[in-house]
Amino acid sequence: MRRGALTVLAVGTFALGADGFILNGLLPQIAHDLAVPESVAGQLTTIFAVTYAVASPIIASVTGSWDRRLLLGGGLALFTAGMAGQALGETYAVVAVARVLAALGAAAFQSNAYAVAGALAAPEQRGRALAAVAAGMTVSTVLGVPLGVLGGQWFGWRPIMWAIGVIGVLVAVAIPALPAVRLPAVRLAERLAVLVRPSILRVLAITVVGMFAGFTVTGYLPLLLGRFGSGAVLSWVLVAFGVGQVLGNSLAGRWTDRFGARPVLLLSLGGSVLVFALFNWGVSTLPTTLSVGIAAGVFGGMLMVPQQHRLFALAQDAPTVALGLNGSAIYVGAALGSAVGGGVLATAGAAWVAPAAATVAALGLLLALATAMPRKAAAPAQTANA
């Protein structure tokens, strides 16, 4: 495993994640500066998510045989242009267009970063390689909101956009030094066939449901923790959640290599069911609330590595298409979780949000039990593919 290459890819995913998460902490300033309501400014996140979800599998499908370095560098260049457009934009429309550019660049970079990590690693180390790249995104979830709030207070939101763009440039400069990686040349029709391959769709369905469950709760934590009446408590819970995610991601990489993807996936979903089922009881005191935050982060952080590992094994003929679809599935699940969580909050009250998330996570667990291939059955196929 080439650690230098994985570090470059991880810093790139950190920049992409920082753009999304830091934006949430800057929305009040952006709304004021662009003279729009905060609810409208919040749609900049939606614009990014929708563009990424649509573009990622398309880009992967039409560039299947390209040198990955070209796509990684080109994606970062487009992402950086989008960040510059946001920093310079004087109107909401200009910033929105820049968000589209940034999302297109992120779509080109992210799935290819995971594909390159999987290709560079030996099969027995693939889980740790995927986890190393995912660590960049995970760290951005921990630091994104607090960095956005503090940076916005000290410097304003536009310098923050420039700073993220600079990180993108630095990573782009390092891309040519990466090992050349060309994935198997596959005709466009065969790459597009990945979009409807039943085994791939079953894995993607679990990603959607897993993210659906997580965002049902995490999108409304300020309201679910309202009994404490303190923003400081929310900050500590978010930190606890982020630390848990980093730990969960790291454990998922090691355990996927050691035990296989299926046990780690089942542990992630089963643990999420338990945490969300006990959520209302667990947030009764500050120590137990922090414990719930860490546990939710650990089990949530374990989800993506086994999913990416399964997709890489199932679609070794077109891994970037499958991993691009997984990125789209993440955003679909997040959107569903935010929408349903808001609906439950409005109609049934805050006490029913976590039970709703537990129910969705239980559905994901049932799907995983029904569709996940046991390691012993999967091993011969993976060995043959390798």
Structure characterization notes:
Helix content is 83%, strand content 0%. The protein has 386 residues and is mainly α. The chain has 2 domains: 1-175, MFS general substrate transporter like domains (Growth Hormone, Chain: A), CATH 1.20.1250; 195-379, Up-down Bundle (Growth Hormone, Chain: A), CATH 1.20.1250.20. Helix 5 crosses helix 16, helix 6 crosses helix 15 (304-314) and helix 9 (198-218) runs antiparallel to helix 17.
Mean pLDDT score = 81
CATH hierarchy: architecture of the largest domain: Up-down Bundle
**Distance between termini?**
16 Å
Count of DSSP H/I helices: 18
Helix and strand composition category: mainly alpha
Q: Looking at CATH, which topology of the largest domain would you report?
A: Growth Hormone, Chain: A
CATH class category of the largest domain: Mainly Alpha
Number of beta-strand segments: 0
Number of domains: 2
Order of helices and strands: HHHHHHHHHHHHHHHHHH
The CATH fourth-level homologous superfamily of the largest domain: MFS general substrate transporter like domains
